[in-house]
Amino acid sequence: MLTKNISNLLIATAIVTSSQVLAWGQNGHRIVGELATQHLTSTTAHALKPLLEGDSLAEVSTWADEMRSNKSTFWKKKSSKWHYINIKDADNMHQHVHHNISSKEQVKNILDGIYYGINTLESEKTSVDEKRFALRFLVHLVGDSHQPFHAGRADDHGGNKISVTFFGDKTNLHSTWDTRLIENERLSYSEFTSFIKTSNKAIIQEYLDSEPADWLLESHNISEKIYNLNETDISYGYIYKYMPTVKTRLQQGGIRLAGLLNQIFDKNAQPLVSALKLSKHEN
């Protein structure tokens, strides 16, 4: 079972470069979307059709990054903070989790963005266009929340300022985890999804027994371990050590995305079987 530490979450938003908002690269996000599709109930899949407009979850999973080229104020100046969070003092955190986010202006970090998406999709007062926006962003943010360096340190911009070499090529720690570890497998997103898919009920139950704050705390803890080892010469040994973590995070992201969508759209979806067990919140 996942350790519950939601009440210990202290969030500090930091100014970061736009490169920090890119998580998992295109293939990583598509893997999460494709795996989620395999765990949707038929009721949820039907409810998503008008919102997806013919696209799949894998196809819309990269939308929030692609839209950064849009010249509107939101995409150029406001959207980047939706993609990440900086957590300080994980052992002595205070609760700063805001579950009732109802407008874009309230979003200060990825956790706010996830709850904006949930609330917009659940609301009977929001328009179809608002729900389409929320769904596309939510699919992306669930993926982001499972990339360890989207809950990294503010001072190095989530690993972007940490120089490493990847088989001799100069890059940075964030990019390594975004893209290079996944691309090194030489698999398409559908092939990768096929390799990590699971029907193990115990594993699925463990993953679904969680909330968005848990996912980010997990990412934070993973990133801290990687920071502390300070490995900068990345080759076969690093991949052997960390590829299981990458695969687990993608697997968790896909199953949890499906569980979240089933929780939103299918009232008959069973918690810890096909849906998250999300509690109701007042703050």
TrEMBL record:
Transmembrane spans: none
Pfam families referenced in this protein's UniProt entry, alphabetically: S1-P1_nuclease
Signal peptide boundaries: 1-23
An example Gene Ontology biological process: DNA catabolic process
CDD domains referenced in this protein's UniProt entry, alphabetically: S1-P1_nuclease
Keyword Glycoprotein: yes
GO molecular function, one term: nucleic acid binding
UniProt entry keywords in alphabetical sequence: Disulfide bond, Endonuclease, Glycoprotein, Hydrolase, Metal-binding, Nuclease, Signal
Descriptive protein name: S1/P1 Nuclease
